[in-house]
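Inputs:
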Amino acid sequence: MDDYNKIYESAVMELRRGTLVLSVLSQLETPAYGYSLVQLLASRDLAIDQSTLYPLLRRLDKQGLLESDWSVEESRPRKYYELSEDGREFLAKLAVEWENIVDTMKNLLENI
Amino acid sequence: MEILERYLYAVGRWLRKKQKKDIQAELESTIYDNLESRFGAKEEYTEEEVSEVIKEFGSPWKVAAGYTGLTSRLIGPELLPIYFTLSAIISGAVILGLLVSFIVGLFRPDIDFKSFILGFLELIPSLLVAVATVIGFTTIVFALIEKNVPGYKLKSVSRLKSKEPGFTTDKEKWSPKDLPPVPKGKQKISKWEPIVGIIFSVIAIVLFNFFREKLGIYYTPEWGSGWEFVPILSEDAVKIFLPFWNTVWGLSIVFCMYQLIKGRWTLPMRISNLIRSFVDAAVIIIMIKGPELLDFPLLLSYSKPEVAEALTPVAEFFNYSINTFLIIALAATFIGIISKIVYIFKPSSYEAIPKPK
């Protein structure tokens, strides 16, 4: 039974991992810093590991999908991320892809 | 807040200089955000509080790996099966070579039970060292192929593969057009040809580099009286030839590995095979021109007079025939060169180079 649970958990992880980029991009229409994004996602029932999110943000930044800027206006410096022009377009395309997946899956799971 | 400093420093050790400061700053700011949300806004946080948060973040190595994407591998899945096969073959060849030299070493006049046991005990560590060495070299060679040979190159996008399936992966770039055609007729290389080539080359390297003093004639003057040994190779000649031989065997190993990985003849492979033949020919010429390989005066001086007498005609025969043999080998190599040139001009004997798209 232990094995069963492990396999199940890793299947769920795999499913969630696929939605990560889309989830993160979707919440960055307005600027946010790392920890605020963790909380924002958590408030919408998406628990994400911080050690996964922060490197992901940097990577999306490097790939040009996000823009980043250090803000020194608050009590301590924070790095803010926001969708770039390219990122906006990318998000729209990816969202369409997501709709397709949902439709396909609904179709497949109809009789279960 | 010494513990935080230490943590950030430890993470930084694994990061590239270019991004290090920025990542450390961001990580620090994030850790403070965590502390604030958990323990309230404060000027100072206790060591326990900080420890609790960074423990959740994970070990410095793990955190750094998240940023560098160091899921990269020494030897990728494409090469791994061949790597395992080759490591096994080469280790097997080395073990075989050492065992043979051990057994050959038993035919000594002064062999007794004690020296047999001692020799056997020495054999075990030398087997381990030899196997570790060849596996080490094989690993280095494969890691170099993985990193430098086009097609096996570690692409930066492949780092994303394990983290974000469906994002950007090598697989999406791959198209069925990239599939090489099934090798036909002369294009195909049987797996055993290169394997046998590698085994022989490895055995030759081990034998002539490390155990050549055991190469010679073993005989028993009277059955039951023990074995007599006479070295046969001229050390002077071997010293001159050995670097050339090692070049030939080394090239053969590299070439056979290349064949094993590709599994089919390609034009560069046909050409490098031709170049290899020229090297062979050059080494044979060096051997014909160089000193005599077999040391017969030494051999005869070792022997008892009656044995020397019996061996003299044999020695003369060998002295005479070894150069004849080398000349025949040279002729064979030249015939080989001609046939290899023919193959190069016969495109059906190798896979066409795919046209750039």
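Chain A has a mean pLDDT of 91. Flag for discussion at group meeting.
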